[in-house]
Amino acid sequence: MSEEDLIHFVLEHENEDTAQLLLAAGRWPEVDVRRAVKVIEGRRKMREKAPAWYACTGIDYPDSLPLEQCSSEETALYKQAFVPSDGRIADLTGGLGVDCWAMSRKAGEAHYCERNPALCAAARHNFDALAAGNITVHEGDGPTWLLAQPGRFDLIYLDPARRGKTAQRVYDIADCEPNLLEIKDMLLQHADRVLAKISPMADISRTLAQVPETRELHVVAAGGEVKELLLLLAPGNTPAPRIVAADGQLRFAFTPAEEAAAAVRFADAVGPLLLQPAKVLRKAGAFRLLSERFDVAKLAPSTHLYTADTPVEGFPGKCFAVEEVLPWNKAAIQNLRRRFNRMELTALNFPMATDALRRRLAIPGGGDRHVFATTVNNEKVLIICKP
How far apart are CA 347 and CA 372, in angstroms? Predict the structure, then answer.
């Protein structure tokens, strides 16, 4: 079967039930239907995740796991900012190759390393289809390959596997493979800078303590959801690493020392407007600084919501008009049930998690009201808002 025949079959049948295509494979004896189905299912996953890959009809998809684990095109392109123009880079944990492809578009020379032979074969095919001729594919262990390379790299990238020996998800750097803590000194002997992608669930304070070579930690979100943490390492210790929260056009940079020293103002009461920081800010840990930089009052030390009397230009988050503040008691619960058949609900610094609170209130999501269950002046309250 030629590649042209495969592509023709995929495009003709990509909106059909793939299980039915496999059952009816005998109808197309000249086509490797099993491979075609993998491509069809891969294209479906990449349609939103990596539009440039979806648009390229010659891409091959070996199996589903690398597609689930790979970066989105948006977060992959974000990494271009770390690549010097025409620089020499190496991706030591290639996977499907989306990150390497994105960074190679700015680099002069790029190297992709991967231990899985099937992924290497797919990468060679896909980089050719994507016209990424400056990428060289190397089959084998990335760190081992690096030890034999002459000269230095401008940037080394790695995305350690975040699954343990029994396939469970892990979040701490030390539990990932390869273990960045064990090889970071060696990596920095071969490169001016090292960029490592780690779990978005990793604890930022612990991570910075584990990796004192961190110059910058980027919290990267897409579409309002935090997708990954990126550590930018350089030789030597940094007393004040920079934390950057990024989501589309939103950028908010600070150091932990600036956050600790920020002059925060606390609210005596909830004002006409309620401000909720974007998730990427909440993950980054910028709480006191939001009060200082935007002159808004924080509801409580552990309540990461803010209030203002007038609209706040440039605030990195959502703004709600406050309609009413109710004390948390049985009367308030009955009040809400009587008035609303639907509402959005968020619990922050509250004795119950959001899901448990929704079960208690027995009010489904939706509608044009958003209720925040939180703490103000040591009192549990329900803040009824409208976006």
Answer: 6
Residue 19's pLDDT band, with cuts at 50, 70 and 90, is very high
DSSP assignment letter at 233: E
Q: What is the distance between the alpha carbons of residues 179 and 225, in angstroms, rounded to a whole number?
A: 26
Segment 136-164 mean pLDDT = 93
Asked if residue 269 and residue 241 are part of one domain, the reply reads no
Determine, yes or no, domain membership for 181.
yes
Give me the domain span that covers residue 41.
3-49
State the total domains in the chain.
3
Tell me, yes or no, whether 312 and 378 share the same domain.
yes
Q: 186 and 153: one domain?
A: yes
Residue 89 tokens read as 């880079």
**CA–CA gap between residue 190 and residue 184 (Å, rounded):** 10
Do 235 and 269 have their domain in common? no
Q: pLDDT averaged over the chain?
A: 93
Check residue 373 and give its pLDDT.
96
Are 13 and 40 in contact by the 8 Å Cβ rule? The answer is: yes
For the stretch 179-202, what's the b/e string if a residue is b when 16 or more beta carbons lie within 10 angstroms of its beta carbon?
ebeebbeebbebbebbbbbbbbeb
Nearest to 291, CA basis, from 272, 273, 306: 306
Q: Using the 8-state DSSP alphabet, how is residue 96 labeled?
A: T
Does a structural domain hold residue 126? yes
Percentage of residues of the chain with pLDDT beyond 90: 86
- Is residue 64 one of the residues assigned to a domain? no
Region 288-300: mean pLDDT is 96
Residues 232 and 293 reside in one and the same domain: no
pTM above 0.85, yes or no: yes
Q: For the purposes of burial, counting CB atoms within 10 Å of the CB of 57, is it exposed (0-12), middle (13-18) or buried (19 or more)?
A: middle
The pLDDT tens digits for 54-88 are: 999 999 988 788 888 899 999 999 999 999 999 99
The verdict on 322 and 269 lying in the same domain is: yes
Q: Is residue 268 part of a domain?
A: yes
Are residues 90 and 239 part of one domain? yes
Q: Is the peptide bond before 178 cis (omega within 30 degrees of 0)?
A: yes
Same domain, 181 and 242: yes
Sheet holding 379-386, edge to edge: 265-266, 297-300, 303-308, 273-277, 317-327, 379-386, 370-376, 344-347
The structure tokens listed for 316 are 């990195």
